[in-house]
Structure formats: structure tokens, C-alpha cells
Amino acid sequence: MKIECALERCGMFGMKPGLESIGAICSRLGDPQDALRIVHVAGTNGKGATCALIESSFRAAGFSTGRYTSPHLVSLTERFMLNGAPVSEESLDDAYASLPGPEGLTYFELLTATAFELYRRKRVDWLVLETGLGGRLDATNIVKRPKVCIITRIGLDHCDRLGGTLREIAAEKGGIIKDGVPVVLGAMPAEAREVLERIAKERNAPCVYAPDSIKDCEIPSGFALGGKFNRENALTALAALKVLGVGRDAIERGFASVVWPGRFQKIARNDRHFIVDGAHNPPAMRALVDSLKEDEMPVNAVVCGFCGDKDVAANLELLREVTERGIAVPIRNPRSLSAEATAKLMRDVGFADVRLCESLEEALSMAPDGTVMCGSLFLAGEVLQLLNAAPCGAAGFTPNETFSAASCVQQGCDNATQKSR
Fold this sequence. Notes:
single chain, alpha/beta, UDP-N-acetylmuramoyl-L-alanine:D-glutamate ligase, Protein-Tyrosine Phosphatase, Chain A, 2 domains, eight-stranded mixed sheet, 17 helices, 14 strands
């Protein structure tokens, strides 16, 4: 794709917090973001699942939808969902080609400008928009008047860029809160909630704390996503959908059909059962471990690969609560921690049986029944490819639990039906 070639050139510009560049290019495009009805979502963990739940419910209610999230597991097109399926490469390149002078944009700024133009061209009824990093200076925050702002659980991550305390990080995430625009907060530590509620009050933004307004029993019985943490995300999504006036029937159908790959995704292969999860920071790993303790699948091993800029030791200490057997692998990313370094950290935190593999293929060959694979979304994407359970392009995503060619084809039929609504 042409956009991928452009993104390779963006690498030299790195991270560039601020709205000047994205604002300038959106202005030259005629501010496509202002033509869209937007739900804007920030947070440390749970953003993507919350976006998926809201977008699925919108589709169930008969709306045409866009969903812009990051990162992708396998294909860049996964970031640009259109009516429940990744957008076509042709449509993505066409939207990119319309950008006036994209030189000098960062990777995420280029993607975000392309997303706004793409969804304006497709005339979607709703765009569910996820921040990339932070909120206040995130490229997505060029949006002036979303219909609702959502902030999911706040935790310590990207501390070098967002601040070293929960209060500092919450203040950065809270930068998406707009004057008079309703804001929904997911469950989070008290000090983060206090900061966000103060910002909402200062901006006269009606504020809903999801755990206080929605009860666990209100989650539809057919809820498709596994993991205890996804019930928390469901409460946040429910509270936002209630603010937006989406009907209960659409919510039930949307929650039953939602797909969010690589997050507590269960896969069965040749009498072996795996759980694939992109948990990569301590708050997400805590949520994964708590869910594993409640799940019916016994955990007999973990396959782990991490980026070197994460708190790997803290993640592994949490995983040690559910198993003593660890398999260390590298991930396909320049920031990958070596398998040797991961294996050493596994031993340091008390894993009794540690294996080192030079590739994920090797790790899969020795992984026993009841293996959890986690540590990075890059690892999750690679696992899903190897297990033939990755997103299947224009036909939509695979089912959450187990994958089959037949169900993939059926998913494509369902998506085609919804597009025509």
C-alpha cells in the first residue's frame, strides 16, 4: 500500500506531542473531523474493547460505523474498521492520497488525518475514535465536539511521556474532556477519578462514573468477550451507550456479536487449548491473571515476549501466580527484549521451569495444553497468524473463541448484511 511506504518515511519524526501539525493538515482538508459524529475514548487499559462494544452496538442499531483504534495485530487496515470489517486497501490508499503535503507528520498523525478523511468520504453515521497515547496532546484531540468522551481505567504506563503518578497520567488523559460534553469514566483508582471529575466540573461536562450507574447484572447474558476485565469494559460501554440513548435490544445484539481479537482469545488446536492476550503492562497483566484464576482452563505454561521498554519483571511476577513454567521468546519488533533476557527475568521472579526459544514457532511446538501467550500485542498478532486465527481481512474478524473457515465465511456474510442496512 502507498500509505505503508509513507509511514516508513515517518519513522524519522518519532513522537511529536501537540496539535499544530494535525491541525494544519486537517484545516487544509476542510476539517473532515468536524463533519463526523464522534465518540472519543482515552485511558490506559480497556480502550479498544470499549470502542469495539460501542461500535458493535451502533451497528446493531442500524447505523453505519467507523472505528479507529491502535495498534493493529496483523494488518494496518485493522486500525480502520468500516461497518465491522477492516477497510479495503484501495479505500485506505485513496484517503491517504488526498492528504495535502503530509511530509513532516509523525506516524500517528498521518494515520489519524487519513482516518478522518476516510470516514468523511464513507459518510459513516458514527465514528468511535481511540486516542493513541495520552489525550491532551494526542492527534485525535483535534476533535472539538464529540458526542461523548470516555476515559477507561487509568494505570501506570508510558510514564516517561505522561508522568510518573496516576494523577499526572489522569490529567493528560483528561485532556480530551470538552466543555459541556458528557464524559463517562470507567472503574479506576480513586486518585485518578478525583482528577478527572475535577476537570469535568471545571468544564461543565456532565460526568458519569460507570460502576456507580451500571450494575454487573445489567451486562447482557450473551456477552461475547471473555475475561473478568472485559466485564469492566462492558460496564463502561453500557454507561456511554445509555448516555447516547442506544436501545437495549441493540446493546444486547451488539454485545453478543462483538469481536476483539487477541484479548483473552481462546483457541483450540489438536487437543491443545490456548489463551492469547496482549497484556503488556502491570495493570493489564493483573487483570489477565485475575481472569485466568476464574477461568475453567488450567494454566500449565506461559509463552512470553515483551518490548524492552515495559516493566517486564513486574509483569512476570504477576504471571508467576498462575504457573511455574515459562517459555521465553523474542517478538517481531525493533524494541523486542531478547528471549535470553526474558528467560533470566523469569528465573529471577521464581519460575521453576524456564525454556528459551529463538522463535515463536519453536515455542508453539513445545507448548502444552493450557498455555497462555502474552506480553505484547505484537506477540498476540504473531500467535494468531501461526494458529490461523488472525483477522481475516475484508471478511471481518474471526470469532472470539475458536476459529474455523466456515465461521469466517459466515462472519463475512453477516458483515455484508449489516453494510446493506
